[in-house]
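Tutorial handout. Part one gives the primary structure; part two gives the three-dimensional structure as C-alpha cells.
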Amino acid sequence: MIAIRLAWRNLQRNRRRTVLTSSALAIGLTVLIVQLGLLDGTDQQSINNLVAYDVAHVKAFAPGYMDQDLPGLDHTLSGVDSLLSLLDGTRDVVAATARLEMSGMLIHGGEELFTRVVGVDPVRDGDVFGTLRAVVEGRSIQDETPVALVGDRLASDIGLGVGDIVTLLVRSAPGALNTRTLPVVGILSSGHPKVDQFAVYVPLSLACDMALLPDAATEIAIRTERLKDSELVSRTLARIIPGPDWRAWDDLAGDFIRLARMKRTAQGIIIAVLALLAAVGIANTMIMAVHERTREIGTLRAFGFSSSLIGRIFLWEGMLIGLIAGSAAVIIGVAVVSYLGVHGISLEAYGDMDIGYPIRDAIYPVINAGSVISSFIFGLVLSLLASWGASRRAARGQVVRALREGSL
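Part two.
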C-alpha cells in the first residue's frame, strides 16, 4: 500500500504533468471507444439489413445457381409447394418462403432502368423478410393481384409515385422477352440500398408467369429461432433434404464479412499508431520524473526502501495515470457513442455512392460492453508497459551516486 500512496502523492505533486499525460492517453482511448462503437454499430446494422431484406437465416438454391457470376433462370428449384410443405414440419425452421428473382427493365414514360424483378409470396414472405412491412407510401402486396412495389430511391430516380403505371420487361426461362404493365401500389424504404434502389417486387405467381416457370423459384428463404443457429440448421437441412444447395447467411454475406474484416484491420493500424503515441508520451513523462527525483530516490533508498519498492512506485504512477485516463475515456466515449446512437451519423453527403455496407441514410453506433472494457484494459496495459522502463531505471539506481551527483 505504501507504493500506491507514494505514487498518488507524486502524481498530485506534479498535477500539470499528470493532467497533460492523462489527457493525451484519454483522448486516444476516447477515439478508440468511439471508433469501435462506430464499427460495432455498422456491423450490427448491416447484419440486420442483410438478414431482414436479403439473405435471411438460411437459403436453398438449385445446384449450380450460386456458381454463376450473374445468376439467372437456368438453375431454378421446382416443386416449390412440396418443398415448403416439407420445411413447415421441420424442426428449427420457424418460417420459409419462396422467391423468384430475375433481371429486367423498368419502363415509365421515356425512362428506362435495369432492375431486379423479385417475385414474393404475399402470405409467407413477411414471416421471413421485412420487405413487405417497409412500405412508407401506399400499400404493400397483399394478394396475387398483379401489382408492383418499388423502393423509394428507384422511384425517385425514375419519377414514380403510387398509382403510376409501369412496364416490366424480362427474359423468360426459354429466352423469350415477356412484358407486363402494372400499377405501382406502394413505395418502400428499408435502409438497404439493394432493396431501395435496384428492386421491383411483384407477386410470386406473376413472376412465375413472366418467367414461364410454374411452381418454381430461384430460392427458398428460411428463418430460424436464432441467427447463430443458421449454420447448424443449414447442415441439418442438407442432410435431411438433399438436392438443394443450402447456404447459411454468413456464407451468402461473404463480401460484407470480408469488408468488415478489412475495416477491422485498418482499425488495428489506427490503434497501433495511437498506442505508440500514447506510450511515448507516458514513457517520456515517467523518465522525466525519474531524472527530476533522483535525490529523492536516493533518500528513499538510504532510509531502507528496497529497489523493488522504488520500482513499484513508478509502476503504480503509470498505472494510476492509466486508470485516470481510462475512466475519463470511458465516460466521454460512452457519452459520445450514446449521443450518436440516438441521432446517427448522416450519410447524405455520400449521396447514392456505395460505401460497401448495406446501409444508406445514417450509421448508428452502439455501445458494446466488450469493446469498452477492452479499451479500458488496453489503456492500463499501455500505461504499465510505458512506465516499466522508468521503474527499472529507478530501481537500479545507486544510493551514493543519487545523493551526491543527482544522477542514477
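Part three, for discussion. The first strand starts at residue 58 and ends at 61. The chain has two domains: 2-50+256-405, 63-243.
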